[in-house]
Design goal:
Layout: E1 6-12, H1 33-41, H2 46-57, E2 67-71, H3 80-87, H4 105-115, E3 119-124, H5 127-141, E4 144-148, E5 153-159, H6 165-178, E6 187-194, E7 201-202, E8 207-210, H7 218-224, E9 228-232, H8 235-238, E10 246-248, H9 253-264, E11 271-277, H10 279-285, H11 290-311, E12 315-320, E13 339-344, E14 353-357, H12 362-370, H13 383-386
Parallel strand pairs: 1-11, 1-12, 2-14, 3-4, 5-6, 9-10, 9-11
Antiparallel strand pairs: 2-13, 4-5, 6-7, 6-8, 12-13
């Protein structure tokens, strides 16, 4: 294989494979998302194991059919934006700001002044818990629930009957405009919910409002070279819609996988499809739901044979992640972990151990190398190691 026609990069959100060397700085020493889920639930994931996950985790002695390895995050942080940007070739020298004590008074005051709405909350919290705690007050008073986490996020929760979804999006755009320079958080997140007292539930109308990438990414380079760049799931949010030629903001793994497969069945595109499968992180990792996490992995695994069959003779699949979110670990936040690297293609070698890569950016460098595109992005390509001569 000299060049590829299609690259499919699938990010299994929050699926780390063991603590990074600097995990202790983040309070995450000992975390190992996929291994701990495997040890507790033994999920039925034969296709992932056969592709190389078994070798990565040390749970299978058979030679995998895919190429495999691990990647360490070079950027500081353990959040979605930082992880995805580095996968796309953009390494952050300075981490996004976080707010373990809530946002400073000047930020909240400016937000209240510009939106004309008061704030309650303003502290780190679990999103599912804070709407139960403050949902009634919000419903009666109309005050916005603002909260954060260990990540660089400014989250705004509002009942859809109190603040219509489009209005909430407008409020988030206002917050995005305010949060700049020293308070330039990675994402402002709209968190709509419905229901009644004691039974509030978040809806699928979540939207992320990211800061514009600070430099070119793999997406920009591919688009400039007149290739298709298709985002599925929250990819468009993470990159602030930049570098994409098409996007499907599908909500949840089922919808994202359906969108991915429908696109793979089409012959009228050449380039990259970049997919985020969020449920392992959003629904199960943050909620310490090991059972749900295992079942979610099984569901994705069941689609792998169809995905491989549709990829074609000149396609390349990369399965990886953006950080950890160990559901067995204390707390409900992301975990600073290495991520899996699984690569497969009919024109690629089998069973190549790619070792532990120094940066997530090796993904972007390899994808661009596989398309024969010169670039100045971060990372080191491993394409020569895996392509058949």
């Amino acid at each position: 294989m000299k060049k590829i026609k299609r690259a499919l990069v699938v990010v299994l959100d929050g699926c780390g494979v063991g603590s990074s060397p600097d995990a202790a700085k983040y309070g995450d020493a000992g975390s190992n998302t996929l291994l701990h889920v495997w040890e507790k639930k033994k999920p039925d994931i034969p296709n992932l194991i056969e592709l190389g996950l078994g070798s990565i985790l040390g749970i299978d002695d058979e030679e995998p059919v895919g190429c495999y390895g691990r990647m360490r995050e070079k950027s500081a942080g353990k959040d979605t934006t930082t992880g995805h940007w580095e996968l796309a070739g953009l390494t952050l020298e300075k981490p996004f700001p976080t707010y373990p004590n809530g946002f400073p008074e000047e930020v909240i005051k400016k937000f209240e002044d510009e939106t004309g709405m008061q704030v309650i909350g303003n502290r780190p919290a679990s999103g599912t818990q804070i709407i139960q705690e403050l949902g009634n007050e919000h419903y009666v008073t109309g005050k916005l629930i603002v909260y954060t986490s260990a990540d660089s996020v400014f989250q705004i929760a509002a009942h859809e009957d109190v603040v219509p979804v489009q209005e909430l999006y407008h409020i988030c755009r206002t917050a995005r405009r305010i949060l700049k320079e020293e308070h330039c958080v990675g994402r402002v997140i709209a968190r709509p919910f419905i229901g009644s007292a004691g039974n509030y539930v978040r809806t699928g109308n979540r939207r992320d409002f990211s800061v514009d990438p600070f430099g070119d990414t793999m997406l920009d380079v591919l688009k400039k070279n007149h290739l298709d760049v298709i985002g599925v799931g929250k990819i468009e949010d993470i990159f602030n819609h930049r570098g994409l030629t098409a996007s499907d903001h599908a909500s949840g793994n089922d919808a994202c996988i359906d969108s991915m497969i429908k696109t793979l069945r089409k012959d009228n595109w050449k380039g990259l499809m970049f997919v985020n499968l969020v449920d392992t992180d959003q629904l199960y990792g943050h909620r310490n739901d090991v059972d749900g996490f295992a079942e979610c992995l099984e569901a994705f695994d069941s689609y792998i044979p169809e995905i491989l069959g549709l990829l074609g003779d000149d396609g390349m699949l990369i399965i990886t992640s953006d950080h950890g979110c160990d559901p067995t670990f204390p707390g409900t936040d992301h975990t600073r972990e290495e991520v899996p690297l699984i690569v497969w293609g009919l024109g690629l070698k089998e069973s190549v151990n790619l070792g532990t890569r120094a940066s997530f950016a090796d993904v972007s460098k390899t994808v661009l190398d596989a398309f024969g595109i010169e670039n100045n992005l971060d990372g080191e390509s491993f394409f020569d190691e895996i392509r058949e001569d």
